[in-house]
Amino acid sequence: MSTPTRRQERLHDLLDLARARRADYLRDLEELVSIDSGSYDADGVDRVADWIERRLARLGFDVERVRFPAAPDGHRSGDALIGRKRGGLPESEGGRRILLAGHMDTVFENGTAAARPFRIEGSTAYGPGVSDDKGGLLAGLTALEILGECGIDAYDELVLLATPDEEIGSPASRPLIEATAVGAHFGLGLECARENGDLVIARKGVADFRLTVTGRAAHAGIEPERGANAALAAAHLTVAIQALNGHWDDVTVNVGVVRAGTRANIVCPQAELRIEVRAATTADIQRVTRAIREAADQPGVPGVTVEVEQLDLCPPMEDTPASRRMFDHACRAARAAGVELGAAATGGVGDANLIAGTGVPVLDGLGPVGGADHTPQEWLDVTSVPRRIALLADLIASLGEAGSG
């Protein structure tokens, strides 16, 4: 038998430590899942932040707690946390700065934790947020813990970012996420793995548009010819924009909202369309944007004008050569542990998109295996926990010294 490589030995040590912490992980997960922390429940999110802040401090991280101002509608998001720990391999000697990102909020209303408490049936754990994202966030914390216990510090800096509002698009924390990503060499998303165990190599970006269609009112019975029907133009635009589907691979275009008119006896003077575009690349989002503007320039009804506004843009997390190299690092560790990993692309967005949008290569889905997110059936595979924590810890160690060879 050949002598195990240094990396195999390291992985086996990490796996032993992760297995030894399985009971602690499940106890901690029950505590976190028992805290209601919906995106609009700032107090609940802050209770989760309190818990994570204490854990990071015990791990030797310097922790910054960020409070956001209230939004114009009066809503206040919970706090964000940024934990930082310097390593023993400076960037000048090839050490790398690694950003781990997870979120503390869930989609569930207050009272859900009591109505549907954490439970384990066989090898599966259930509860609100057990997979999305408390299970993944806790896996990240545990991976950092076992790295420290193994004395692994061959990195420039580890940064853990915990956000309060990912489930509603990160309206408060987006600038913080993007600023924190600046200077990072690698980004690791702590969302849980796909149901089949795949990691996430790509996430589509999302662009939201509002089209304001302005026509001219007239009496519909006496002089309709003096009007310019914005509702008719909106109908033409809906057909034209929906027809963009199928023009490009991995692109979807959806006219999700159409509003027009106030009374049946008035030629409709104004209408509004809300459109969502999802695409795997920035280039495709730009192509669809141009196509929407070209359609708006030809509304099909004389006398009608159309204003196009891009309301929001969440950049895609693209499948790049750099992210593929990160995936290769993960696969080598997985094979040493007897696991084959796949790379999945998804239409769902998350904070990993925002990190990728700054130019940092990102790999996501690095938590334990879980599924049925956002539903009462949300689950986590308990048997996957030790191995996924060990794989995450090994990946951090490998990436941390990636520039030193």
Automatic annotation (TrEMBL):
PROSITE patterns: ARGE_DAPE_CPG2_1 (PS00758)
Entry protein name: Peptidase M20
Keywords: Hydrolase, Metal-binding, Zinc
Cofactor dependence: Zn(2+)
Keyword Manganese found: no
Positions of the Peptidase M20 dimerisation domain: 201-301
InterPro entries assigned to the protein according to its UniProt record, in alphabetical order: ArgE/DapE_CS, Bact_exopeptidase_dim_dom, Pept_M20_glutamate_carboxypep, Peptidase_M20, Peptidase_M20_dimer, Peptidase_M20A
